[in-house]
Amino acid sequence: MRPGALRSRTRRAAARAIVWPPVYPLAARVPRTALLAARAAFRTGRDELLESTLDRLERRSPGLAAVPALRADLRSFQGRYEEAWHCARRAAGLAPAWPAAAARLVRLGYRVRDPAEADQQAVATVSRFPLSPEPIWQVALACSGPEQYARVAAAWRAAADPAGLPRVVRQLAVAAGRAGQLAAAAGWYQQAVELLLATERPAPAPARTRLAGLGAWQAVGDLGRALDRAGVPFFFAAGTALGLVRQGRPLAADGDIDAGIFAPDWDRDRLVALFTGDPRFDLDLHPQSGKVGLRHRGGAPVDIFRFYPEGDRLWHDGVFVRWHNSPFRVARQEVGGLALPLPADPDRYLTECYGDWRTPWPGFDAFTEDAPNLEITWPAYHRVHLLRRGFERLAAGDRAGAGRELGRAGLPLPREKLT
Questions:
Q1: Burial tier of 369 (Cβ tally within 10 Å: 0-12, 13-18, 19+)
Q2: Cβ atoms 233, 330 nearer than 8 A
Q3: Cβ neighbours of residue 18 under 8 Å, at least 6 residues apart?
Q4: Residue 328: its pLDDT value, please?
Q5: Residue 316 vs residues 112, 223, 304, 345: alpha-carbon distances, Å
């Protein structure tokens, strides 16, 4: 691992790649196509072209914040976090009202700054951008202790109009959850539900990551090449295995790329070091999970899970649930011109994971009883997940669905509110 890349667990909690899709402000005199070309070069890993394009843009428009912002993203993927932070600071200085610039500064601050200084910056960002999802999200991802969460929550309450809570409720609930304050996380969703029920204002559409448009196929190939070069045995799992077997590609509606490594081959520190030095991936680690989370250059999230034996089953863990399978072998299968490692008996594996896996199920949620191989390991956190589902259904106008989800979480809606 490069020196100073990850200096503490707190910084690893904030190791999140840039907000996707990235948005960079344009100056009127800068050709839009030049910045679009730079973004395309970034996403496809054409770094020499990207550097030369950014140099030309900087000479032509030295005050354009989009240039140092994109340099910050590039340096982060290259593992050059100190340089990335300086680029992010310049972008924030050029565009102090740009939420995405503030988000980069928070994220990278936890990579390279003193934790207390990074915490102070995060709280100040909440005060300046209380209703902007991007910077609040980065603050939430870095919130790994009760004291920091208390400062974040106090700053938000002091700065925000409470009516704006639905815009950032997921971020605030994540901050509470990562700090272990699950009652507070549930409380944010309950308050947001009450606001939606009490007002007839349109609710914001819940933001969801979908692989469509995020270079998922390229991420599959790049991940495979990186692990194969390092001699790490692995396989594609869960929803990625489903997409590769059923459709010959990752599912566009899926939220991430899933891979697994059997316990005897698992070395988390080695994986972190490997992908810190890989310019096609940036780290996206969770303080309450042993998985290795990544973000591919094209935007696709990646989760690598440890599959471990317990009794007569293989298990892999999420934050508040775990999933089991019968022991299985791995075999390379030809998919889209690539020899990809998958469970050797895909029918048995996918049936255990999904039941009727051949029939698409758009609303499938692997964190609920939709998954036949699920075991809940942290009920209080699972309740927060159900509250989130209820809030999102309510925000989408599905009151009946919201009532079902909230009822499962112990927060039933009054009958008159269900229609």
A1: exposed
A2: yes
A3: 73, 76, 100, 103, 104, 107, 295
A4: 98
A5: 31, 19, 10, 18
**Residue 102 and residue 235 in one domain:** no
Q: Would you say residue 199 lies in a domain?
A: no
Domain range holding 34?
9-124
- Considering 91, 124, 157, which residue would you say is the last residue of a domain? 124
**Residue 25 vs residues 130, 181, 387: alpha-carbon distances, Å:** 20, 36, 35
Tokens matching residue 4: 């100073």
Judged by phi (left if over 0) then psi (alpha if -120 to 50, else beta), residue 325 lies in beta
Cα(374)–Cα(297) distance, integer angstroms: 31
**What are the tokens at 292?**
């290795």
Residue 44 has phi, psi (to 5 degrees) of: -95, 0
Sign of CA dihedral 288, 342, 353, 254: positive
Could you tell me if 174 and 140 are in contact, meaning their C-beta atoms sit under 8 angstroms apart? yes
**Residue corresponding to tokens 């042993």:** 290
**CA dihedral in degrees (128, 132, 135, 141; nearest 10)?**
120
28 pLDDT higher than 60? no
Q: From CA 196, how far away is CA 298, in angstroms rounded?
A: 35
CATH code for the domain of 279: 3.30.460
CA-only gyration radius of the chain, Å: 22
The answer to whether residues 106 and 226 belong to one domain is: no
Residues in the chain: 419
The pTM assigned to this predicted structure is 0.89
Task: Give the type of residue at 195.
Answer: L
Tokens of 35: 């910045």
Q: How far, in Å, are 208, 276, 357, 358 from residue 354 at the CA level?
A: 21, 33, 5, 9
- pLDDT tens digits, residue range 215-240? 999 999 999 999 999 999 999 999 99
Instruction: For residue 296, list its beta bridge partners.
Output: 281
Contact 36/303 with Cβ under 8 angstroms? no
**Mean pLDDT, residues 58-66 taken together:** 91
Count up the domains in the chain and report the number: 2
The C-alpha torsion from 375 through 376 and 382 to 383, rounded to 10°, is 110
Taking alpha carbons only, the member of 7, 216, 33, 240 closest to residue 113 is 7
Q: Tell me which amino acid residue 191 is.
A: Q
Exposure class string for 82-109: b at 16+ Cβ within 10 A, else e = bbbbbbbbbbbebbeebbbbbbbbbbbb
